[in-house]
Every structure is written in C-alpha cells, then in structure tokens.
Design brief:
The chain is α+β, with helices and mostly antiparallel strands. The chain folds into two domains: 310 residues, no CATH class; 52 residues, no CATH class. The protein has 16 helices and seven strands. The strands form two sheets. A four-stranded mixed beta sheet has the order 1-2-4-3, sandwiched between helices. The longest helix is centred in the first third of the chain and has 39 residues. It starts with a helix and ends in a 13-residue tail after the last helix. 25% of the residues are buried.
Length: 395
C-alpha cells in the first residue's frame, strides 16, 4: 500500500511539475519573442498578430518542438550528457567486473519476471564510491566503487545491489524525467542572461526586471518542489532492486552505507535531501520481506561469476623477465688495446687529475674506458705511480 501511494504521489507531482515547466517555458519564449519584435519594429514591418495569441501559440509549440528536435538526433543528447557527467566506456579489466554482474541481474530478472531496462553501463574516474543513472539509458559507476567492490569480501553483492538500484531509476523513469526537465528549462537558461543585460537599459528594465525576478522565483521554487520527491524516488528504486535481489542481496550494501553516513541538518536541506537515511531504507526492505514481498527466486551467485569478478584484482599486464642481450666481442685495435683494463683481478686504481694524465701515462698508467678511471697495469708500475694512489681517509 505504501509503495502504491508513493507511486501515485510521484506521478501526481511529476505531472504538475511538467505542466508548470511547459507554462513557464512558453511564457519565457513568448516574452522574449515580444521583446525581440518590439526592437525589430524600428527596422521592419512586423505583423501585429505575432504579439498576440498567434505568437503565444508559436512559443508554446517551440517549447515542445525544440526538445523533440534535439532528442531525434542520434547520439547528440547522450554524448552531451556523457561529457557533462564525465563518464566513459569501461576498459577490458573493468568489464571483468561489470559483465558478471550484468549476467547475474539478467538471470535474476528472468527468474522473477522482472523487466530490465536496456541500459548502457559506463565508468566515471572518481575516487568516490558512487553511481548514477542519467539520460534515457545511461548508468555510470565510479572507479572508487569498482575498487571498493574488488577489495570487499561481499563486493559482488554490493555492486549488484548498486546496479539494481540504478536500473530501478531508469525503469521508473526518474533519469528520463530529469532529462526532460533540463530540456524544458532550456529557454529559461538561455534568456536569463538576455534579461539581465536588458535590465541595465533605462525604461526597458522597468519591464524586463520584474519578468526576470518572477521567472527566477518560479524556476527556483519549482526546482525545490521537485526535489521533495527525491526520497520517494529512492524508495521506489530500492523496491525495484529488492524485486531482483531480495533483502539478503541488499543487506550488506545498506550496512556499508549506514557505517559511512552523516546526518543532514537544516529544514531546507532535509526537505530537498536526495537520499533518505540508509537505516530507514533497510527497514522498509525488511518490512517488505515480512509482508511476503520477497522475490520467489534468489539464486546464489555462480562461482564462475565470482571468479571473473575478483580476477580484476590482478595486474592486467604480464611482467616480462629482464632481457639480457648477448655481448658481442668487438676487435680491439692495437691503439686501444694498451688502454684496456686487465681482466685479471685486483687492478690498482689511481686518482689522476686531468692535467697530470700525460705524466701518469708516461710512467705506465693505463686508462679503463669502461669505468673512466686510471689504473696501474702491474705491481711493477705501482711504485712509479705511488703519488696517485688513493689516500686512506682520516675521518
């Protein structure tokens, strides 16, 4: 009964909000049209009918036609929303986590007769543990959520619970609703800077300033009004996830949320809070179970899904052993042979300054090209080169 009442409340407020947005968008379009036509009359012969019912009818039609035109262009809205959200397609390693969860939810949906929306699963690079549904068929999961799921013993169940919840938002039309709101409010966002500019013009601002204030009051009021439904939408998405996974599949998820949750303070903040307390969300799922609303089939996660899910812990690149290239012996010319260091052990190294290299060489010192140091080739030459022998440290 609570779920039915909540759904009716959401639909009622959603319908009222759409009606207000259409009226607001049409009024802004018509007002902007009248202002433009008034300026155009100084240069052109403008039909008077456009300042009357005909102009309002055209503005009303433009409120609908503009969003429909944008939505009809394949990939345009989705591409803009992806850039705004900062989401991207999953990598091969991330798919080893995502694909098993998708397959498990599909199997649960078929077993319980629940219809899954055709969603596109994306990833957002962010350390936060979060996910969101947006647009007509988009869901993103943060890399922080994927990392948390990999490290948790029940990470598969938590990830599946988050995904099922976001699929519920798509199924209930919440994400699509927000998209339509944005498109219907597009005239307000476009013409607000124009009204602000006209407010600096004497006499003209006597008309545009009150209109601008009224439009912004309506806009902010409608937005706050719609946000009061956010908690109801979250409960509805929880019920959809519950129909797929049951209480057991969501228990660990809400336990994690409760542990990391902070209270919301303030009257306005509570009225417009986007999410209800996780403890109360968990209570509702327990109540659904007690009332016999649990899904009929709760299959355990197949082992192959778990194996694939946690396999993403491994580094995706194979560590190659260090390559040792064979050393090719190059012929030594007679000129260089005398400068090569002896291969026998125990060369006596010398500290020969650059300015004394010719003197040391005349006394029999040799230069090692590998270490870039001078040395005595044999014990017989050490006595003659004694002045360049390393001195013991006095420290």
């Amino acid at each position: 009964m609570f779920g039915l009442f909540s759904t009716l409340k959401i639909d009622l407020v959603r319908g009222l909000y759409f009606a207000f947005l259409i009226a607001l968008g049409s009024t802004v379009n018509f007002t902007s049209l009248c202002i433009i036509l008034d300026f155009a009359e100084f240069f052109y012969d403008v039909p008077k009918e456009l300042n009357g019912p005909l102009g309002f009818a055209l503005s009303f039609a433009a409120t609908f036609l503009f969003p429909m035109a944008l939505l009809s262009i394949p990939g345009l809205i989705e591409g803009v929303l992806d850039m705004r959200a900062g989401s991207r397609r999953p990598s091969a390693r991330e798919l080893t986590q995502i694909d098993p969860v998708k397959a498990y939810l599909q199997a649960q949906a078929e077993a319980n007769g629940v219809k899954l929306p055709n969603a596109k699963w994306l990833v957002k690079d962010s350390a936060q543990i979060n996910a969101a549904a947006y647009g007509r068929n988009r869901i993103y999961f943060t890399t922080g959520l994927l990392k948390h799921a990999r490290k948790s013993a029940d990470g598969f169940e938590q990830f599946a619970g988050v995904a099922a919840h976001e699929l519920g938002h798509l199924r209930n039309g919440d994400a699509r609703e927000n998209l339509y709101y944005d498109l219907l409010l597009f005239p307000v966002r476009i013409f607000t800077p124009i009204f602000e500019f006209l407010s600096f013009i004497p006499i003209v601002n006597l008309i545009t300033r009150p209109i601008h204030i009224l439009v912004m009051l309506l806009y902010n009021g409608l937005f706050s009004f719609s946000e009061t439904l956010s908690t109801s939408k979250e409960y509805a998405a929880d019920r959809y996830a519950f129909s797929l996974l049951g209480e057991a599949g969501l228990a660990s998820l809400f336990n994690t949320f409760v542990t990391n949750e902070e209270a919301i303070t303030g009257v306005y903040a509570n009225l417009t809070s986007s999410h209800p307390p996780s403890e109360l969300r968990r209570d509702e799922l327990v109540q659904l179970t007690d009332n016999g609303g649990a899904p009929a089939h709760i299959d355990p996660v197949p082992q192959e899904f778990l194996t694939s899910f946690y396999a993403s812990k491994r580094h995706p690149f194979k560590v190659q052993p260090p390559r040792i290239d064979p050393v090719e012996e190059s012929p030594i010319t007679p000129e260089r042979k005398e400068d090569q260091a002896p291969q026998s052990s125990g060369p006596v190294w010398l500290n020969v300054p650059y300015v004394q290299k010719d003197q040391a060489k005349a006394l029999g010192a040799k230069f090692d090209w590998t270490s870039k140091r001078w040395y005595a080739p044999d014990n017989a030459a050490v006595a003659a080169l004694e002045q360049w022998l390393p001195q013991p440290s006095t420290n």
